[in-house]
Amino acid sequence: MKKIYIINASPRKNWNTDKMCQSFAQGVQDAGGKAEIINLYDINFKGCRACYACKLRNGKNLGRCAYPDGLTEVLDKVAYGDGIVFATPIYFGDVTGVMKSFLERLLFPFVRYDKNYTSIAPKKLKTAVIYTMNVNSEIFENSYLGKNNQGAIGFFERWITHVYEKPVRICAYNTYQFSDYNKYVADVWDENDKSKHRQEVFPQDLKKAYEAGKEISIA
Ligand SMILES: Cc1cc2nc3c(=O)[nH]c(=O)nc-3n(C[C@H](O)[C@H](O)[C@H](O)COP(=O)(O)O)c2cc1C
Predict the structure, then answer these.
(1) Which of 29, 33, 153, 206 has its CA 20 to 30 A from that of 146?
(2) Domain ranges of the chain
(3) Which residues of the chain carry a pLDDT beneath 50?
């Protein structure tokens, strides 16, 4: 049975990113796999401390993040799963801060400081990325992903691909951000358009996450 870890880097439970994670997890389970959602905002941890214990020649933690905190147990188990999903809302055109901190702790120990930055990860995991955001696909592709993957999201995916398999990407654009738009100063968005999109398009995004979950589970 395939074990798939879904890393949720959204602070909001049951909102857009979390719902995409739940749908992906359902797909994994319906295809006979086991899915576990890990909510980064529930874990007490910080980014890399640059202690370099993971790079110490003949060190007992070579290739492993040795810093002991809430993330240690998570890092040790996801490295030996079958797949990992990175799910995050877009903040300032990038993944959230906690996702960035998670990536530092997960991938940096696996990247050897040799000419090719050879990966020493114990397994080459299957991967997926889930993004939810306000903007449309055009802005996402041209700016966040960037031409030739030179944007912030392009950079994020390039490092995932360097260590693991190339991620399957699922995006939810133009997401519904507030429970009641009238209560917030958010004149740039048209509430009716947001509401229509949430009813008509977001269910399709959830379906894509579900199908990707099935796919990763049987691949
Ligand atoms: C701090 C912050 C920064 C954001 N920056 C962006 C952004 O640069 N581009 C964008 O499209 N959406 C941005 N958003 C909107 C969220 O990405 C979007 O509403 C997302 O779907 C929220 O996910 P959630 O429902 O899981 O919280 C931002 C939201 C917050 C709170």
Answers:
(1) 206
(2) 3-218
(3) none
| Residue 89 CB–ligand 1 contact under 6 Å | yes
98 CA distance to ligand 1 centroid (A)?
14
> Considering only CA atoms, which of 104, 108, 94 is closest in space to residue 155?
94
How far is residue 131's CA from residue 144's CA, in Å, rounded to a whole number?
11
Q: How far, in Å, CA of 192 to CA of 78, rounded?
A: 41
Q: Which atom of ligand 1 is nearest to the CA of 18?
A: 26
Q: Which residues contact 63 (CB under 8 A, 6 or more apart)?
A: 54, 109, 110, 120, 121, 122
The answer, yes or no, to whether any atom of ligand 1 lies below 6 A from the CB of 138, is no
Give me the pLDDT at residue 219, please.
80
Which pLDDT score, from 0 to 100, does residue 155 have?
97
For 3-218, the fitting CATH number among 1.10.540.10, 3.30.9.10, 3.20.110.10, 3.40.50.360 is: 3.40.50.360
Ligand 1 lined by 8 (C-beta under 6 Å):
no
Task: Name the residue with tokens 């993040």.
Answer: 65
Q: What is the pairing mode between strands 126-132 and 168-172?
A: parallel
Cβ neighbours for 120, distance < 8 A, ≥ 6 positions apart? 63, 110, 111, 112
